[in-house]
Amino acid sequence: MKLAARVGQVTPSLTLAIAAKAKAMKADGIDVCSFSAGEPDFDTPNHIKMAAEKALNAGKTKYGPAAGEPQLREAIAQKLKTHNNLDYSAKNVIVTNGGKHSLFNLMLALLDPGDEVIIPAPFWLSYPEMVTLAGGIPVIISTTAESGYKITPDQLRSACTPKTKLFILNSPSNPTGMVYSPDEIRALASVVVEQDILVVSDEIYEKILYNNAQHLSIGAVSEEVFKRTIISNGFAKAYSMTGWRIGYLAGNEELIQAASTIQSHSTSNVCTFAQYGAIAALESPQDCVQEMLAAFALRRVAVLERIRGMSCISCPEPEGAFYVFLNITKTGMKSLKFCNALLESHQVAAIPGIAFGDDDCIRLSYATDLPTIEKGLDRLEKFLQQYL
Fold this sequence. Notes:
This protein has helices at 14-27, 46-57, 70-84, 99-110, 126-133, 153-159, 182-195, 223-226, 253-264, 272-283, 287-308, 335-346, 370-387; strands at 33-34, 93-96, 116-121, 137-142, 164-170, 198-202, 229-234, 247-250, 323-327, 348-349, 351-352, 361-365. It is built from 13 helices and 12 strands. The protein is globular. A 7-stranded mixed sheet has the order 2-8-7-6-5-3-4, with helices on both faces. The chain has a 3-stranded antiparallel sheet with strand order 9-12-11. It has 388 residues and is an alpha/beta fold. The N and C termini lie far apart (46 Å). Helix 6 (153-159) packs parallel to helix 7 (182-195).
């Protein structure tokens, strides 16, 4: 069978591949410590599940509007106004099948063949693949640990060409956990306006912040930036709703209508009764978010303390999300070889940095319990001692 050429232009997700391999090993009875999944290990809070159950029992099981339940779109718009200082209304919001789907809809609605999209590296591994599938050209801009893995205004300005359509901003970041300060956001915003480009701000980790780090949504900087801003977000990380597949895109009404048209011919509406769980997540007290954040903060400290005591690896201190991005240059191994050897010999699953655009690093997720973290880091330390 001759497949479409576009299939050969993208690579399968290494994150999902490593996670699947670890799960298969566990199914065979092997004790695997997995740091691979970007998925909170907590159950979805009970009040959210109860809201979905109530909707299910009330017969909310039929087709709904392709752009999402009106009550949820309104709740999202209200959240964006109240918490992010973004003046959106329900018509500026589309509910999607997860945050990933919101970005995929955006790329299809926005990009023409040859349009360039600026992506700072390290990046979430699906960004360039989505751009490629939509016919765009990913323009990868490398950052370093010394810069906190943050793109500078000068780098952004230098990367812009007449073909530049979009800049992808992710703060807090997957895979590095870095957070742009409000001043850094303002500096990037000035370049967005100066170069007259669009920016999509992926804010899926906005509620997971440490040590008084602040999240400023770039669209809140000024009206000129707001007109050029698109917001991608969802419920997976903050509310431990990864399997619910509920995300959203917010932006210019014309763009949202275009994304809705695309969605109407692909997935149609997001699972109807699940959307009522998302409404409860937004409109109920946020204690559950703070409880999970407190647990992540303890895990973060435990991981960083252990990493500092190991030779040959290092990482900057993450200010958000639930990842550490370890530099393994001193080991002499590249990331895929390192992760395969670590999994096979010591049963620890980590994600190769090559998936995120940096082959000298690996990503560990601490979205798992403390005993697993301690045991897994013991094994990592033994691996380093044995092989190095």
